[in-house]
């Protein structure tokens, strides 16, 4: 069932060609900071780029104003986009199930293809920071591992490195809420096809085949600066998620936030911005 997600005046769309992992895609994206893009959506500024990767049920609109506030703090341009299946990007066909390695597909194929379409060359990518939350945090880690020279650094906020029982239980509870409360109506404001968005995410996380999913060993190829952040009250994962990262990326730095749940950009935005700004400033 299609929904009336609102298209904003500042959203643009990029058409990506089909590959072995996906068909043709239309990706909703937006540049942040007025001087960063012209009226066609092309970048014009020479400031470094921060690319934002949203959570499993996220979209451009669901970020709200946090990416803008962080970009202002960092003095960077920002690129936010809705991943396939979310926001106003191409919906997931209802009969299609995300594969177990769907996050690897996003990091290996989708993000690089979007950067190509937006004419973001290797020189700019080497100055680019990739910042992701939840599933987007996992994709940020995978991008840094799969393209170790095509970024300046990465920030992973509440990433999933492997599957924990607490994650599965919380996601199962979210399915119950989606089907019995007004959660579906709330999410419909942010997605052109809310059922496609929700069940694409929910079905793969509750798939028994996904229980063995782990990206821990893949992280060993990360060479650029890496910051991982998590709240102590995260109900989608324990601190074991980010504590695992330095076992494979010894130079990774960790920040653990008190009185903070799964979404630090909503629960503790000032502390989150401070931690990211302090980290990034060491490498600017």
TrEMBL record:
It holds the Pfam family Abhydrolase_6. It comes from the Bacteria. InterPro entries: AB_hydrolase_1, AB_hydrolase_fold, AB_hydrolase_sf. Keywords: Hydrolase. One of its GO terms (molecular function) is hydrolase activity. Residues 51-275 form the AB hydrolase-1 domain. The keyword Hydrolase applies. PANTHER family: HYDROLASE, PUTATIVE (AFU_ORTHOLOGUE AFUA_2G14860)-RELATED, MONOACYLGLYCEROL LIPASE. This is Alpha/beta hydrolase. It comes from Paraburkholderia kirstenboschensis.
